[in-house]
Specification:
Elements lengths: L1 H8 L1 H14 L27 H24 L4 H8 L5 H4 L4 H11 L6 H20 L9 H10 L2 H4 L1 H11 L1 H18 L9 H12 L1 H4 L4 H11 L8
InterPro entries: AtLOH3-like, HATC_C_dom, RNaseH-like_sf
GO molecular function: protein dimerization activity
Pfam families: Dimer_Tnp_hAT (PF05699)
Length: 242
């Protein structure tokens, strides 16, 4: 999973990016080897003897990633972490370093059983062997750093037709971020609408409100007068004036 990779190996690249940004915009960067102090820097307020780098690396950078990982594990059902781990077998970075035929076949069999028949799973296993040979041989697949770009190159070279089962699996994998983002938006929307003052709102009304909020870009283009006209045309209703 990319969060794990970022936590384990991403600090040096991150701090180099920060340093480059500070130099480019003439911003003073703190001495990472100096002692980290809090408050008014009085000795009685200093609880730990740690460096500035330790504070930003361990207490800030890693802690934020750990929090995100904890939120992910809590929010999503069992098996999602395994799904993301198996997805990494398709990652083309570092010359397809994570490529693993068994993991890719397990991904298709376990998480997309309705999209691949038993015969197609056997064919997928065979395709993957030839696929890796072509990925190492063809120049167009050198130095690719993401799965979407990999799919683009497969289409451009027309290898998507040859490795149609791999193409299908990659397309299925690429739908995961979309579904995850939709879930995140739904949770955020729910917290905004069903708060302490509206905690008795019904499920149907809540779903309608969430739909309007999530798709508000489309809802803003709807004419209220046309909605009122359609509502009046359904049937005659008694309106109680207050």
């Amino acid at each position: 999973m990319e969060l794990d990779e970022l936590r384990n190996n991403g600090w040096n690249d991150f701090i180099q990016s920060v340093q480059s940004f500070c130099e480019e915009h003439d911003i003073n960067m703190p001495d990472m080897g100096a002692r980290h102090t809090i408050g008014t820097r009085r000795s009685c307020q200093q609880r730990d003897c740690i460096t500035v780098e330790h504070y930003y690396h361990i207490d800030t950078f890693n802690k934020v990633i750990d929090y995100q990982l904890g939120e992910f594990n809590t929010r999503f059902p069992d098996g999602t972490m395994e799904l993301l781990s198996l997805n990494s077998a398709l990652d083309p970075r570092d010359a397809f370093k994570r490529f693993n035929i068994d993991d890719i076949c397990t991904l298709a069999k376990k998480f997309y059983p309705l999209d691949f028949t038993t015969t197609e799973l056997h064919a997928l296993n065979q395709q993957l062997g030839f696929y890796k040979i072509d990925m190492d041989r063809i120049q167009a697949f050198k130095n690719i750093d993401s799965i979407p770009i990999l799919l683009e190159r497969l289409i451009e070279t027309k290898l998507a037709e040859t490795y149609y089962l791999i193409d299908r699996l990659i397309r299925l994998v690429l739908t995961l971020p979309v579904s995850t983002a939709t879930t995140e938006r739904a949770f955020s929307c729910m917290r905004l609408i069903k708060n302490r003052l509206r905690n008795k709102i019904g499920d149907e009304f809540l779903a309608d409100c969430m739909l309007l909020h999530i798709e508000r870009e489309l809802a803003d283009n709807i004419d209220n007068e046309s909605i009122i006209g359609d509502f009046n045309a359904v049937k005659t209703r008694r309106v109680q004036l207050i």
